[in-house]
Design a protein that fits this description.
Layout: E1 10-12, E2 24-27, E3 42-45, E4 60-63, E5 69-73, E6 77-78, H1 88-98, H2 110-123, H3 133-145, H4 149-156, H5 160-176, H6 179-189, E7 191-193, E8 196-197, H7 199-207, H8 216-225, H9 238-257, H10 263-270, H11 291-303, H12 311-320, E9 324-327, H13 331-344, E10 352-359, E11 364-370, E12 399-400, H14 406-415, E13 423-426, E14 429-431, E15 438-439, E16 445-446, E17 452-454, E18 461-464, H15 465-470, H16 474-484, H17 486-495, E19 518-519, H18 521-532, E20 536-538, E21 543-547, E22 553-555, E23 560-562, H19 566-581, E24 596-601, E25 608-613, E26 618-624, E27 635-639, E28 642-646, H20 653-664, H21 678-681
Parallel strand pairs: 4-9, 6-8
Antiparallel strand pairs: 1-2, 2-3, 4-5, 7-8, 9-21, 10-11, 10-26, 12-19, 13-18, 14-17, 15-16, 20-23, 21-22, 24-25, 25-26, 27-28
Length: 737
């Protein structure tokens, strides 16, 4: 016969024994490029082929330390459910409209396939599918497992070659699974529109119910949606909803025609409204109650080889793996940090407060809070990056840490054998004697003799490790760093996990001890937690366990090492305890239990910090203006509805830290620091001044009054050397004191 439409299609040898087609299809060549079942005329032997079935993408759930859900990640929002968790009416509806002879035929519906092939030959293209539910499932598996654009195109291409492959795989499916199992798999993989993959997600998204509770009109709606889920997506507007309603009614009519429901039941269902609820899909850090911690967890998964060999595999596991991630977040401590910040800083303020809480001895991040919500909506004062963490965990460049870095110079001095009452006389200004005075860790000479680091009026005189720290005396720490070594101080800081928030190398200038490097609260809190843990540094930790979709759990332990001798850490804690009683925090006061810490105020009041700890908890608080801390300093500002002449470490970060710790430790029995080894660190050695009066000399940095300005109109003696962006200018040396 002449013409494509009259070519003979012979479907032979259908083996009905197990309901599986074992056939040969002989198709003469069909004129026109691309219009043959195969490239050349001949006989195609169909045999069952086993299909590799990667599990469909599922939602990953993130939980806090108590097991409560805090976030979800997904590429496709899907919740896989068992056959018994799907309403019978849903199964009936999908079979009625998609493959009404599903339980009667084998891998393919011979009648439907013949009809489709004849139509396609007449049309000169693939115009009719004729696919069974088994074939549709195969197509979805191939599409979901496609790793490249080419593979995705091959899974969707309108060709007889693809159709034959689907048939082979479908025959393999029918040999491997029961009909109920195939239907279950199909209902869990199909896309229904509105971002819902699988019948459970669709039932929740469309109607706010579980798949097991679907009613007749609801089931008919979802069954109608799978044919063209984008054209009938009710989330896109009225036109799409009208199409979906018409499609639902087609399904209802078909169910009545097949005798699956009565005509009266179909008519009643057709009179009901569509009923689309558009239930919001949970997930993403924007939707999380704890967005900054959520961001940290997400980036930790994506960046850490512990959670997968490659970045691609880690992303796939997070967004498609159906994982359950257990984290370190303590909701009570998180609430304590959030309440404390809200009491002092408003979301509408230009300055942003951020705080991280870390458990000593584990590195567990138990809270991450900030004064602004996370997001991109300026009208809601949102901030679009993780202000509590470093750039590797979704953060920005951070803020200069100021005098919190003096602690590392103090530790270096104790490591080298100095005693807590060793000291020397310092002046109101400090000028490096020569360029060779300081050496960085590359052995290069550092130190600008033309630059003077200054203190406030009244601060010169004899200072010891105790009194110099309590008063946060700049000139004392410049000389102390010179004596113990710049590189030694940098090395101490690095041993406690200190690294710049932006990931760049630490700036190793002589003003390192004054905190010229930009930091984030998680990193600083973790460093101070190591002192609380008697020198045991534990890397920041947010994830404790991951359970995969099959129930297998991988547990993660803290990564710890001994960074300091316990006795050195104990002596450091002893000195820093005096900051609350005789130093810069004496105007704020302690928390009713052993605590130690250090204020930090950068040059010109660009940023302010407080970092401190008890034996049970460490925390760091930063405040700065994300528009640019050097351009928008904390001088003459209104924060939290209160006017501040200046903001120092004890003005806002200190009170926030205090309020947080009191609330966070309310139900934790007080622990005590290990007493200082007085034989090793008590008193003084060769640098003694017996007639010194520590009480009289402990107020070099006068505690601030209520308005945030130091009493007596003196400035806090904390001085960094930042450039506008915190990096050295063209001559390689920090500027701006």
């Amino acid at each position: 016969m002449a013409g494509r439409g009259t070519k003979i299609v012979r479907l032979a040898a259908a083996g009905a024994a197990a309901g599986v087609l074992v056939a040969g299809i002989t198709v003469p060549a069909v004129g026109g490029a691309g219009f043959g079942l195969v490239a050349a005329a001949g006989e195609v032997d169909l045999k069952p082929v086993d299909l590799v079935e990667p599990p469909p993408a599922e939602v990953t759930i993130v939980r806090d330390a108590k097991g409560r859900e805090i976030a979800r990640f997904y590429e496709e929002y899907r919740e896989v459910v068992g056959f018994d968790a799907i309403a019978e009416v849903m199964k009936t509806a999908i079979v009625a409209i998609e493959d009404y002879r599903f339980y009667e035929h084998g891998a393919i519906d011979v009648e439907g396939t013949l009809r489709a092939l004849a139509t396609n030959l007449r049309a000169g293209k693939v115009a009719q599918g004729g696919s069974s539910i088994t074939q549709q499932y195969v197509k979805q598996v191939l599409l979901n497992s496609a790793g490249t654009d080419a593979e995705r195109e091959a899974a969707l291409e309108a060709s007889y070659t693809r159709k034959l492959n689907e048939l082979r795989y479908a025959m393999g499916m029918e040999k491997k699974y029961t009909k109920d199992q195939i239907l279950e798999k199909y209902l869990n993989i199909a896309y229904f529109g509105a971002g819902a993959y699988g019948v459970e997600a669709a039932a929740k998204r469309f109607f706010g119910v579980h798949a097991a509770r679907l009613t007749l009109p609801q089931a008919a709606t979802l069954a109608g949606a799978v044919q063209d889920p984008n054209a009938t997506d009710p989330n896109l507007g009225r036109e799409q909803r009208d199409r979906l309603l018409k499609r639902r009614n087609v399904v209802l009519d078909r169910m009545a025609e097949l005798g699956k429901i009565t005509r009266a039941a179909a008519d009643r269902a057709k009179r009901t409204k569509l009923g689309y609820k558009g239930t919001k899909l949970p997930g993403g850090c924007e939707a999380s109650k704890y967005p900054y911690f959520c961001l940290y967890v997400r980036q930790e998964i994506l960046n850490n080889p512990d959670f997968g060999r490659t970045a691609k595999s880690r992303l796939a596991a997070l967004n498609r793996g159906g994982l359950t991630i257990r984290t370190t977040l303590d909701p009570a401590k998180q609430a304590a940090a959030e309440r404390a910040i809200r009491a002092y800083v408003h979301a509408s303020d230009h300055a942003v407060a951020a705080e991280a809480l870390v458990r000593p001895g584990t590195g567990a991040i138990e809270a991450m809070a900030a004064s602004r919500p996370y997001g991109n909506r300026a009208a809601r004062h949102e901030i679009s990056y993780n202000v509590v963490a470093d750039a590797a965990h979704g953060g920005g460049a951070g803020f200069q840490a100021g005098s919190t870095f003096k602690t590392f110079t103090l530790i270096s001095a104790l490591k080298q054998g100095m005693k807590v009452d060793d000291g020397f006389t310092v002046g109101a200004g400090y000028r490096a004697p020569a360029y060779a005075t300081f050496k960085n860790c590359a052995g290069e000479n550092i130190g600008d003799p033309s630059h003077t680091v200054t203190n406030d009026e009244g601060s010169p005189g004899w200072k010891t490790l105790r009194t110099g720290t309590w008063g946060s005396v700049n000139t004392f720490f410049m000389e102390l760093e010179r004596r113990v070594g710049l590189c030694e101080t940098v090395t101490t800081a690095k041993s406690l996990g200190i690294r710049r928030a932006d990931g760049r190398a630490l700036q190793e200038y002589e003003t390192f001890t004054l905190g010229i490097n930009e930091m984030d609260p998680v990193t600083v809190a973790t460093a101070y937690a190591a002192i609380a843990a008697r020198g045991t540094y534990c890397a920041p930790m947010a994830i404790t366990a991951i359970t995969d979709r099959n129930g297998k759990t991988a547990r993660y332990r803290p990564k710890c090492r001994q960074a300091l001798e316990p006795a050195v850490a104990d002596a450091t804690a002893d000195v820093l305890s005096g900051v609350f009683t005789k130093g810069t925090m004496s105007g704020v006061g302690g928390i009713g239990r052993d605590a130690a810490g250090k204020t930090g105020t950068t040059d010109g009041y660009a940023t302010a910090w407080f970092a401190g700890f008890t034996p049970d908890l460490a925390a760091a608080v930063s405040i700065g203006d994300p528009r640019g801390s050097q351009r928008h300093k904390l001088v003459g500002v209104t924060i939290g509805g209160r006017r501040y002449g200046i903001v120092a470490g004890a003005s806002l970060p200190g009170p926030i830290w205090k309020a947080t710790m009191i609330a966070a430790l309310r139900n934790v029995p007080p622990s005590s620091f290990t007493p200082i080894d007085r034989a090793r660190f008590g008193g003084c050695a060769s640098h003694c001044r017996p007639d010194a009066d520590p009480e009289r000399e402990s107020q070099a940095e006068t505690p601030p009054d209520a308005d945030g300005r130091p009493s007596g109109d003196s400035r806090p003696s904390e001085d960094g050397r930042p450039s506008e962006d915190g990096r050295p200018p063209e001559d390689g040396r920090p500027q701006g004191r």
